[in-house]
Structures are given as structure tokens and as C-alpha cells.
Amino acid sequence: MALTSSTLQTIFSSPSVASRARTTSYSFPRIASVPRLSRNAVLCMATGQDEKTGQTNEPAAAAPPTTSQIPAIPPPPPKPKVSTKFGDVLAFSGPAPERINGRLAMVGFVAALAVELSKGQDVFTQISEGGTTWFVATSVVFTLASLIPLFKGITVESKSGGLMTSDAEMWNGRFAMLGLVALAFTEYVKGGPFV
Fold first, then answer.
1. pLDDT beneath 70: ranges in the chain
2. How far apart, in whole angstroms, are the C-alpha atoms of residue 106 and residue 32?
3. pTM for the whole thing?
4. Where are the chain's structural domains?
5. In 46, 111, 119, 145, which residue has its Cα 20 to 30 A from 10's Cα atom?
6. What does the mean pLDDT of the chain come to?
């Protein structure tokens, strides 16, 4: 190491290198400004001995970072637990009542308008002439089809996407409930079919 250092100093201090350095656009830093290391310092650094005491010093291994030094990554938010209890699913603010009523109202509104257009009967006549059995059968099928996924823990929000979202279904059901009530009230006041 000392031999290499003195050789480099000799090369860079020669006049030919200095003249070449002046003709180019860059210059080498003067090696003379770097402090010279003694031969013992080089050996001490290579063997790991302290120059003054002569004791061997092993380089300290880098300590692994502690948990306080590692930045904490927040865990993903937990998925909300869906209750599958009968009382929770069918509670007033639960997921089933308004959704089932909205689905039944959508089917009822479309069916009432279709029968009224085809036969000219109002809602009350449709109900009195056999519409009750169709209403009960449709109610049972739609209620079971709506409750089975809810009791398995599947939410409507998890299956919605694009245009068919759970909010769109909820609003369509609300409008259908209002429409069915408005249709029945209009036909009652009018005394006959709406169309």
C-alpha cells in the first residue's frame, strides 16, 4: 500500500503529467495535500490492531435495527363483521326488511301495470280476483332468495359493481314502493284503472 502511494505521488508530481494536466480542461488534485500514512498505520488497519495500545480490535458488527427504528406499516382495515343472527338480519335497521320490501314492490309495481294494461283491471280488482295467492307465492320466493345469502354472511354490497350497485337497488325499491302506493291511491280516488 505504501509502495503504491509513493509510486502514484511520483507519477503525478512529474513535469510531463503536470504539463498534460494543464493542457486539458480538467486538472488532477494535488496528491501532496493528502496526509501520508505511516507504515504501521497501514498494518494496524489491516490487522485490526490499535496503533497506540497494540490490542486487536475486532470491527463491531452492525446491530440489527430495533422495532422502534423500523417504520410501522399499518395493518389493513378489518372487514366489518356481518351478523348472521335472525334478529340482526330482520331488525328494523337490518339489511333485510327494506331490501325485501323494495324487491317485492318492484315486482308488484311492474306486474300491476302489466295486468292493468292487458286486462284493464285496477289494483284492487287484481287482488280480489286471485292476486292474493300470486302475491303470497312471490313474497315467499323473494324473501327466501334474499335471506339465504344474508344468513350465510354475504352482503349485498360485496356483490355490487358497475351500474348494478346496492344503492341503486335500494333507491329503485324505494321508488317502486312509492309508485305502488301512488298507483293504488290514484285508482282508489279515481274509482277505476289508472291507464
1. 1-71, 78-82
2. 94
3. 0.53
4. 2-47, 86-190
5. 46
6. 74
